[in-house]
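Justification of computing resources. Each target in the renewal requires a structure prediction run like the one illustrated here; the chain below, 768 residues long, is used simply to show the kind of job we budget for.
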Amino acid sequence: MSSSPLSKKRRLSGTETKTGSHCSSSNSVRTDLSHTPANGMAKNGNDAEIDEGLYSRQLYVLGHEAMKRMQNSNVLISGMRGLGVEIAKNVILGGVRSVTVHDQGDAEWRDLSSQFYLREEDLGKNRAEVSQPRLAELNNYVPVTAYTGALTEDYLTKFQVVVLTNSNLDEQKHLGDLCHSKGVKLVVADTRGLFGQLFCDFGEEMIVYDTNGEQPLSAMISMITKDNPGVVTCLDEARHGFESGDYVTFTEIQGMTDLNGCQPVEIKVLGPYTFSICDTTGFSDYVRGGIVSQVKMPKKISFKSLSSSMAEPDFIVTDFAKFDRPGQLHIGFQAIHAFKQKHNRLPTPWSQADGEELLTLAKELNSAQTESAKVEQLDEALIKKMSYLAAGDLSPVNAFIGGVAAQEVMKASTGKFMPVMQWLYFDALECLSEGEEVMLTEEECSPRNCRYDGQIAVFGSKLQKILADQRYFLVGAGAIGCELLKNFAMIGLASEEGEVIVTDMDTIEKSNLNRQFLFRPSDVTKMKSDTAAAAVKQMNPSFKITAHQNRVGPETERVYDDDFFESLNGVSNALDNVDARMYMDRRCVYYRKPLLESGTLGTKGNIQVVIPFVTESYSSSQDPPEKSIPICTLKNFPNAIEHTLQWARDEFEGLFKQAPENAMQYLTDSKFMERTLKLPGAQPVEVLDAVYKSVVTDCPHSWADCVAWARNHWQCQYSNNIRQLLHNFPPDQLTSSGAPFWSGPKRCPHPLDFSTSNVRRMFRISTS
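Resulting structure tokens:
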């Protein structure tokens, strides 16, 4: 999931320089960022300091500048059903300036299927007013207010971002046109059973400062031609990884020095190792060396209003197995709005008559569409299923669409990451049983005036009973674990004869509060599993949950024994390390239990569903091994940041881990010498030499000895070794073919001279 899904008809606007123009500061691309629309994203955040203890993990992803911009955004979220509260929860945790929740409706039974901040005693009360105090507890830095009035122009223009959920199409169009004209960024989100919809309009001059959040790429150069355009060839050790339209600059080039430190220039990729730049015919001849580095350039993007985009939609494809599905769902959602406007209700769950009527409405709407929005042939079965499920309200679907919508709010507020352009549709019809013979009935899916009515409308009452009797084991109560527990409670898992056992050996820290929404500041230092279990019991008192504080592993197999695993219906992992994941996978394979595996990394995530005898197990496939770095490269010819990091790690472990451990074993283990002498090659000499230094020659007896050792080590690593290398291979050394020895990936080093006035070098001594 490292790259965004492809979209149809993506349009970018803004000043661009064509490949082939001259590379000079006067002709380089400069994006005009001087104009910010009214109510647009502020360039600079407010003066409030960022609580790095709370937002530390988020800062790794966004950075300080983006975080400051987000702290200037006031956000309005309209609609406090399950989807709206999911978005509000995520946005508040993110740390915007303020959040206002809006709803003019009262809580109903079906809201309890996914609105985790409503209780049975709240039925008949305004959803926004009931949710506001519970949402306000999530983040003390974000004021949360409730509003139950009309959404007027004067009121909307107070906000930088507006989110609409549970609104009709006429209201969406009206408010969408208003937001577009006033420069207010708009997100529209909706879910209907197993279907989801998302729309973004961030104005005609949205500035994206970083499209992907990845570290800028760099590569070493082997050749640059004098041509129009000039062609840059990189060393064939690794692909450069650039894309056409990227901007780069150059350093350390010998010969064609005109490029060193030039303004960012746009490139066109010609191959995995080559790309073209600008006109280089007027530059000096290229001699050797050089590094090309990617420069993240701001991009100005133009969005269409909701009304315009309805007629000329741009779709994000989320599932390439359903490539034509977005257009079908675009018509289907409009048909649902038309049905509700006509009857003042949604289609009855699994009603054949309502399904036929919705199909007729969809056909009429499709016939009236412009060419770009018209579907060549409607999928009649799909449209009918939309009718059958439209009244459904599912917590997992709301969690997914709500998470994506909240991420779009953060993009709108920060300018970090490429926004959705502009429609995203989703469906999870795979959750339904296939075949006409398993068609549900109106009676089985009719409301029971219970908290699961929104889910019964989709899957029926029989499945609800099966869920209620499930016995599940959740391993981990961190960020993913909290979300799983919330979803488990909302769907009615283990609400009757079943049980959920959650185990986590960790205690709550302040940095957890930004992502693990079941915890509050007063919970810091408490056990995660106990606190999470108590929190979800508030959301659904019928939820049967037991909290453990055990680590999963061989040492707890007396607790999680044969009887325990045999009693389970399934296992969910919410772990943060591979070893524990593989251990749980082995246990599930042995006992033939389904396993739900998931993980996140910044804005990326993965999930794997393991079903016995159907899918492969978690351990059956592994990530490809990381490319190893040759010892000679680390010691003598490092040329990339990865090399320096690996060198530092090896040096640290050798000095402060391996050598002390070997010395301790020498002093305490009588068989140490015997084992060491059996090691292959020169390893016995290396190990014993390190032990000798640790206990004899380099063993410090005072602080002065420690300082002397650190000073001598610095001299050896950063001066003497380099001088010896340059003695063996002088800077002007030639190879047998006459080419310079110090060329290509070999970068000529320079010895350092120690000085007590150099703060960095003194710091190196003090920390050794």
